[in-house]
From TrEMBL:
It comes from Streptomyces wedmorensis. Keywords: DNA-binding. It comes from the Bacteria. Pfam families: Cupin_2, HTH_31. Residues 25-79 form the HTH cro/C1-type domain. SUPFAM superfamilies: lambda repressor-like DNA-binding domains (SSF47413), RmlC-like cupins (SSF51182). This is Helix-turn-helix domain-containing protein.
Amino acid sequence: MDHVPGETSPDPATADVLPDVAPQLRALRRRRGLTLEAAAQRAGLSPAHLSRLETGNRQPSLPMLLALARIYGTTVSELLGEAPPERDPVVRADRSDPVEAGGWIYRQAGGAGRALQCLRVHVPYATRADIVRVHPGEEWIHVLEGRVRLALGEAVHVLDPGDSAHFDSLTPHRIGAATQGGAELLFVHTLMQSPAADLCLGDGTPHLR
């Protein structure tokens, strides 16, 4: 087969052992809502090369599978059609160590490797120095205790206990407590396995408390 300049040639040793991943590649790309051109650009491939992978006319190398798995928010095992291990649906409170990042304290409230990231978060008092965030995905917050100030675009909302907000996180936003003692909220984000500090949480390095 012809080699496309700038692209990694598949390892001949893997071509005979890899199952047919073409249907999985196509299905996962479509599930992520990516065009062939957009996915190819993120993977550093040409659209024609990715098309050949998706039609089975070319076998991907293992490094290429790793890159595509990261783009599609999945694992190489899923790309290869392997059954994922059974996950415990219950997250026990005593197994969730609090982590602090820039004054924010959060606990995992959902399982790892899911399409939703679920956290219980203590939000510090809002200041003008708080960082405005913009990133892909959607967010949902629900206030448990205290009051939360949500700056969303040009609008500012104050949320009381029991109030929720659901918004596109490409909209510039800033979250902080409107009460001096901070606030407690539930936080759900759709971007799979995003580091918590890269979302709306503190601007420092996360560390265990």
